[in-house]
TrEMBL record:
SUPFAM superfamilies, per the entry: Radical SAM enzymes
Co-factor: note: Binds 1 [4Fe-4S] cluster. The cluster is coordinated with 3 cysteines and an exchangeable S-adenosyl-L-methionine.
Protein name, UniProt field: Coproporphyrinogen-III oxidase
Catalysed reaction, written as an equation: coproporphyrinogen III + 2 S-adenosyl-L-methionine = protoporphyrinogen IX + 2 5'-deoxyadenosine + 2 L-methionine + 2 CO2
Pfam families: HemN_C, Radical_SAM
Annotated InterPro entries: Aldolase_TIM, Coprogen_oxidase_HemN, Coproporphyrinogen-III_oxidase, Elp3/MiaA/NifB-like_rSAM, HemN_C, rSAM, rSAM_sf
Organism superkingdom: Bacteria
Keyword Amino-acid biosynthesis: no
Main location: cytoplasm
Cellular compartments annotated: Cytoplasm
Record's keyword terms, sorted: 4Fe-4S, Cytoplasm, Iron, Iron-sulfur, Metal-binding, Oxidoreductase, Porphyrin biosynthesis, S-adenosyl-L-methionine
Cofactors (names): [4Fe-4S] cluster
Gene encoding the protein: hemN
Subunit (UniProt): Monomer.
Amino acid sequence: MSRSIPVGYALANLPRYTSYPTAPHFGPLEEATYRAWLGGIRPVDPLSLYLHIPFCASLCWYCGCTTAVTRNPDRIARYGAALAQEAALLAAALPAHAGVAAIHLGGGTPSTLGADGLRALFAALRTEFGLRPGAELAIELDPRVLTEEVVAALAEAGVTRASLGVQDIDPAVQRRIGRTQPEAMVARGIGWLRAAGIRAINLDLMYGLPGQTTAQVAATARFAAQVGADRVAVFGYAHVPWMKPHQNAIHMEQLPGALERLQQAEAAEQVLAAEGFEAIGLDHFARPADAMAVAAREGTLRRNFQGYTTDAAPVLLGLGASAIGGIEVAGYAQNEPNERRWVAAVQAGTLPVRRGRAVTAEDRLRRHCIERVMCDFALDLAALPPALVADVRPALAPLASDGLIDLAPETLRVTAAGRRHVRHVAAAFDAYLASGAARHSAAV
């Protein structure tokens, strides 16, 4: 379907729009400003927490996250203790609020904290913030280092959802990305989680990897469905060696081209649709009864730094080195990315924010447009200020001419052929895209 769209759209580099303004447009942020933002949280506002644990036992060459390779138990324990300290600092800075609706541990490999470290961290979060009834507690896991002891600790802590990185099940692709992970290892980890009562399982897959074929992507999507995943994310590999030098271990000449990437993404979607999954936004799939599929049907799907989400909390607090959070009415805040400096700031009793961006009323309006386009593939133009609609129409007109959108005086709807290129539609509402020297990943 998308092959009718000019191939230039697939060749473009664009933001993933997990925030607006996007992270390249952040600047220095003072602790006092962040504290003032926190002070504006209302008693009715629920919170969401993202905790970044950067450690991994080994480096995956495709990774675009902020990570550090270590097996040093003292370093890991010090980091876990600092997370609990930062939680206490944040809790003390908050006014009355409605409790925590969602916690997400990402990385890196959060399980490097170990069973005892995870128990202590979740206990600290409960003590400092309080959980709302039905709160979702989620964690990202690497099947290669997952143990039954860690699974038992997660179940004891009340974790409800686990996301396992799979990428591709083909051994040859795995060797080219520095991540050997047999199918049986993934299935074993899922079995442990379900036996412990953690039954909501996400699997993360990738296309566009070195030497990867469309058939291999399809086979991996079929595997994800057959092991019973509730949600599947199919991300396009972002080759950004100027930001992540370790990606230079991947040979550029082995990377699939734009058209092949497009075919791989479509192959995964076709397999998952045949297996009963519903397509969610740009790159997620969910079983029809899953909360994410329900949110997509009801128009309540959201997007944040973790991608598509059902989390509707207006406050996301980021904890850990490099973690990003956001307060909808105020702005975005990113922690000190250097681990040692982050630990030192926390131990000194200061909130370790370093970068961020206050949002204006126009930013919030454009953010709404981008989020609804990315989540709903549609936007009610009649509900927007006429001046904004007039401003973006020149950018939308060529998208309509090329078949990405149906554009009427009062509505915008992304076409079936344009869904794969929805980041181009979102970019029409981005007032900052042309400014600065930011470099982004491929749009497909």
